[in-house]
């Protein structure tokens, strides 16, 4: 278990460093004003090619937007679980370690989201309600790839029936893939936004898994 945690931490750091380098590259390489209202984006040739290939599908954008409520419901559910445990056990220290770590993880994800809302790397390839919106990294990709895999880790240890567990985990895996691919095909994000969101989310999820496992070991 210790060796696995060390490996996961290394992978997490590698992913997070890759995200930082990816972000720097987007800010510096092949930056052109190909977005609406003359907005600029890095890797413009690649992003422009993929955007023209996919086109814009606002119906798919709306669907994935509404389905973004699913990971929010999971996050709320685990927050309520932690609150119930706190009330019943009357001590924060008696709340499941994995739930406490999950709470810290959610705070970290929200901090990353607000950071990139303030420090905008680039804007969407389309106007939303007539306005430019921050596009990097894809917030929906971040939300789904951060919340659903960590929820799957939680459910894997909390659902005792093997058949039900496999079905639920399978559905959630398909849902995650659909949301990420759907967000790209909808044309409301540049390709680099999706890649950046996936890199950051994967790094944070691996970090959560490592810290959560270490906490369980200590418990």
Helix content: over 70%
**What gross morphology would you assign?**
globular
Instruction: Quickly count the helices.
Output: 8
Order of helices and strands: HHHHHHHH
Alpha carbon gap, first and last residue: 14 Å
The mean pLDDT is 91
What summary fits the major beta sheet?
A: none
Count of individual domains: 1
Number of strands: 0
Low-confidence stretches: none
What is Rg?
19 Å
Work out the strand percent. under 5%
Structural class: mainly alpha
Describe the model:
The structure is a single chain. By secondary structure, the chain is mainly α. It has one domain. The chain has helices at residues 2-28, 44-54, 58-67, 69-89, 97-118, 139-158, 162-185, 191-218.
Which SSEs are present, and which pair or pack?
Layout: H1 2-28, H2 44-54, H3 58-67, H4 69-89, H5 97-118, H6 139-158, H7 162-185, H8 191-218
Task: Summarize it.
Helix content is 74%, strand content 0%.
What are the key terms here?
219 residues; 8 helices; mainly alpha; globular
């Amino acid at each position: 278990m210790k060796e696995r945690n060390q490996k996961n931490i290394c992978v997490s750091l590698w992913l997070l460093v890759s995200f930082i380098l990816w972000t720097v590259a987007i800010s510096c390489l092949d930056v052109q004003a190909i977005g609406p209202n003359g907005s600029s984006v890095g890797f413009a040739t690649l992003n422009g090619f993929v955007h023209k290939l996919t086109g814009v599908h606002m119906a798919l954008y709306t669907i994935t937007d509404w389905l973004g409520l699913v990971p929010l419901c999971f996050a709320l559910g685990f927050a309520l679980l932690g609150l119930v445990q706190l009330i019943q056990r009357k001590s924060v220290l008696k709340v499941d370690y994995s739930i406490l770590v999950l709470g810290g993880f959610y705070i970290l994800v929200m901090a990353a989201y607000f950071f990139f809302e303030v420090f905008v790397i680039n804007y969407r390839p389309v106007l939303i309600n007539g306005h430019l919106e921050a596009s990097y990294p894809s917030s929906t990709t971040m939300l789904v790839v951060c919340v659903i895999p960590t929820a799957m880790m939680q459910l894997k240890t909390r659902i005792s029936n093997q058949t039900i567990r496999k079905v639920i985990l399978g559905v959630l895996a398909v849902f995650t893939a659909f949301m990420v691919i759907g967000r790209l095909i909808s044309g409301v994000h540049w390709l680099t936004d999706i890649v950046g969101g996936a890199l950051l989310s994967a790094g944070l999820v691996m970090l959560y898994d490592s810290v959560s496992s270490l906490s369980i070991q200590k418990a």
